[in-house]
Amino acid sequence: EIELLVFESADIESLFSASVIVELGRLATKFSLSYNVHLPTDISLSDPAFNRPYSAADTYARIIERLLPLNPSTFSLHIPYIEGNFENITVQKWRDRVRSNLEKLLRVAIAGDVLSIETLDYPIELLDDIIEDFNLSICMDVGHLIRYGYDIFELFNRYDSRISIIHLHGVENNDDHLSLDRLPKGDIAPILRILKQFGGTVSVEVFSYNDLNTSLQFLEECWNKFKFTEA
User: Fold this and answer.
1) Beta-sheet pairing, 201-204 with 170-172
2) pTM of the predicted protein model
3) Could you give phi then psi for residue 208, rounded to 5 degrees?
4) Nearest CA to 137 among 201, 192, 42?
């Protein structure tokens, strides 16, 4: 499976033109590929600004409609929290915006379980009731969780039935999306235990061919060692 990165919302028609969609579909059939989509991060369903030409929900819906012919396994979505504090009234206003915009998006675009909310730098528990009410999936970004100090195994066990995709990448010195050989040593065994139990998509979310090669070699070495020690 290949992750299609759509980090910027502008010019989606030129980036994924009709001919590009047809070609991606042809390649999927020829090579037995599937796709998942990372939705843009330059817009947000939690944005308090309402003076944009098109709302984030409208833009996401347009992008999803463009890519639906590829039958992606999931559309991963960032919902950032940049409110400055976690006071109850602040959190509730943020949650109200997220709920309203998600309702609008899901009404016109896709079913909730095809949309996976990605773990970022804040506790995903802030969205628990929204995830439940809209039957959303979760994108467990292991690198983000490690970077921000969360217990990855505890979170996996809590949300395992809702996790549709795992993003996996190295973390070192507060920098992420590195090769997997840059993972903290103490996190390798928990990650392997999670992968052993997980049946969904795992995306090695690195952004160069060399980092991908290094990551796959490292993962294979760790996996073989893990299987040996677990036997």
Assistant:
1) unpaired
2) 0.93
3) -150, 155
4) 201
